[in-house]
Each structure stands twice: as structure tokens, then as C-alpha cells.
Amino acid sequence: MLLSDDVRRAHLLTLATLVLNRSWLPVHVTTVRRALCMVVRGVARIVAPDTLSTHSFMEWIQLQIPPMSPFIRSPSVRVAIPEVVVLNSYDKVPCHEAPFTRRNLFLRDDFTCQYCGGRCTADRLSVDHVVPRSRGGKTTWDNCVLACVRCNARKADRTIKEAGLKLLRAPRRPRWTPYINLRSAQLLESWQRFVPESRRGGSFG
Ligand SMILES: [Zn+2]
């Protein structure tokens, strides 16, 4: 009996917790064990999934644990599993920069044509060079955008001005980390409001 409890508790500690930065943007997925350590050290606060109120460790253990919610226990306290934590001081994105890849470009532009604003599936979108390659345009974050089939055909090998098109916004290297590996973690319902649909491990053409 004791052994199976230990096994169960050990398993709960390896579940995934979403880490938000101070601006409530997802930056990382960690384990429950590491998330609890951050909260105990005062580096992060636990986000209550229903109310979005944030709690220190001492506040969290005093809350009523909803029925059916997983928790771990020590002889004296029961601790509900934190599904989302928010960092207290970290408002930067993780130090590694987002590499320029087709997948990350789809994530940055959120499957949206940057000319007409139409949202499409990956097979209806292509990577457009704002300054065409034939004019020396580079394949970089600040010269590539997603374009739908129609806008891409309209623009062809011309500049925006020549084609009479406008960009929704100037393309830049994304400030967040587009490639948080959410696929490797089970995506919890409580994470969904923080993670755009397109970053939930959909298919990329
Ligand atoms: Zn378009």
C-alpha cells in the first residue's frame, strides 16, 4: 500500500506544468516537481485554473482541493498539482533565439496570410519573400511572411508597392519561443487560454 502510494506520488511529480513569464506568455513546460520547487523558492506563483488567481505555496496549500483533482501529500499537507505557474520576475523570453524555420514561421504568423488577414490551413499558405529573392531579398525573419495562395499569386515577383499590397505588420523575429515543445507534453485544458491553437502541435505542411 505504501509502495503504491509512493509510486503514484512519484508519477504525479513528473506530470507537466506550463510556465508563464511575467506577461503571462508561455515560455516553458516543466515537471510538477520543478514547478513546486520554483513556487517554494518564491520564483513563481501557482495559477488557479478556474479563477486565474495566483498563489504562493503557503496560500496554495490552504485552498480547498476540488474533488477529483490530483494532489500529493506529506504527513501534514495536501498539495494540489499545479498545472500552470507564472514567474515573478522573468519578463524576457528564454535566452535561445527562435531559429528561422518553416514551422516557426507558421507559428509566428499564426497560419494567417500577412496581406489579406485570411486564416488558412498550411497547404493553402506559402512563404512569401517581401523583397523578392530576385531583388536580393533574404530568407530571414524580417523578409518572410505567410501569404495565402491568392495573395501570393497577386504579389508574384514584385515588391509590396508594385503589387499594391499592404502588410498587416512588419515581420520580425518573434519575441516568444515559438517552438516550446508542447507536443511532448500532454496539453491540459487549463493551458488552452495561454497557448494559441496553432501552437498545440497541429500538422505543418
Ligand atoms: Zn491573402
Architecture blueprint of SSEs:
Layout: H1 2-13, E1 16-20, E2 26-31, H2 32-40, E3 44-47, E4 54-55, H3 57-62, E5 71-73, E6 78-80, E7 84-87, H4 102-108, E8 125-129, E9 144-148, H5 149-155, H6 160-163
The chain binds zinc ion.
The site of zinc ion has 8 residues, from strand 9 and helix 5.
Question: How would you describe this structure to a colleague?
Answer:
The protein has 205 residues and is an alpha+beta fold. The protein folds into two domains: 2-94 and 178-199, no CATH class; 102-163, DNA Binding (I), subunit A (Orthogonal Bundle), CATH 1.10.30.50. It is 22% helix and 18% strand. The chain has six helices and nine strands. The strands form three sheets. A five-stranded mixed beta sheet has the order 2-1-7-3-4. It is elongated, with a radius of gyration of 22 Å. The structure holds zinc ion. Zinc ion is lined by residues 113, 115-116, 118, 147-148, 150-151.
